[in-house]
Amino acid sequence: MSENVVCTGAVNAVKEVWEERIKKHNEDLKREKEFQQKLVRIWEERVSLTKLREKVIKEDGRVILKIEKEEWKTLPSSLLKLNQLQEWQLHRTGLLKIPEFIGRFQNLIVLDLSRNTISEIPRGIGLLTKLQELILSYNKIKTVPRELSHCASLEKLELAVNRDICDLPQELSNLLKLTHLDLSMNHFTTIPLAVLNMPALEWLDMGSNKLEQLPDTIERMQSLHTLWLQRNEITCLPETISNMKNLGTLVLSNNKLQDIPVCMEEMNNLREINVHFYGIYKNTVFW
Description:
By secondary structure, the protein is of the alpha/beta class. Among the domains are: about 1-55; about 60-175, Leucine-rich repeat, LRR (right-handed beta-alpha superhelix), CATH 3.80.10.10. About 20% of the residues lie in helices and about 20% in strands. It is built from 2 helices and 12 strands; from the N terminus they run αβββββββαβββββ. It has helices at about 1-55, 195, and strands spanning about 55-60, 60-70, 85-90, 110, 135, 155-160, 180, 205, 225-230, 250-255, 270-275, 280-285. It has a 12-stranded mixed β-sheet. The radius of gyration is 29 Å and the shape is elongated. Mean pLDDT is about 90; it is low at about 280-285.
């Protein structure tokens, strides 16, 4: 009986030793694998950084990252070593997302990522207080974060041809320097309140949306000189449009207008109005 106990104890002891050895061996293999993966990542980052540096140019006194028609679905963290960049121009690269670390590029003045497949604007965009131009046309963006309102230097914003954007956060009316806004070819059914309250806005394109009418409060846009509203469903114009004293160009072709308000004849600065009267004719009139 006691011999069996001793034998069983010896077997268990040997088993524990082997299990411990196997465990240690597996841990060593895991560490080795992790080390190899780390080396691969370091090497890949060095290679990608070298490739990125080759795409950096100086133009008009700016340091620009310029990539076009090359596949860059993601941007590596090694890009952070080029934080002196003042402008990004990445077109037709298949870029899927704006990196979360975008806010660390404090010197950025222009961010042009048009013609990619970006679906989201990260909240970190609001950290770019020097940014003057944000161009994200021809992507797949659906919503715009309120943090964009913190880009106090922004003068130009283009979100055309994203197809599904239907509203903007009211906070964007805090963009006091924004003069140029392109929202064409999206899914807006009305002019957003944020847009109506942008104090410096001079140029607005809301063509090819789903607008059926313009709000009476459109007169708030007193700085506006060019308004593109082509290819919508607009049936009539509010009388208050005549109070837009700086409006010089109004494009209304391919809507459902039957007439335009007589009061518009009093708009002395209106030099060009392009109108397609629904079912009647298409014409351009110079006043």
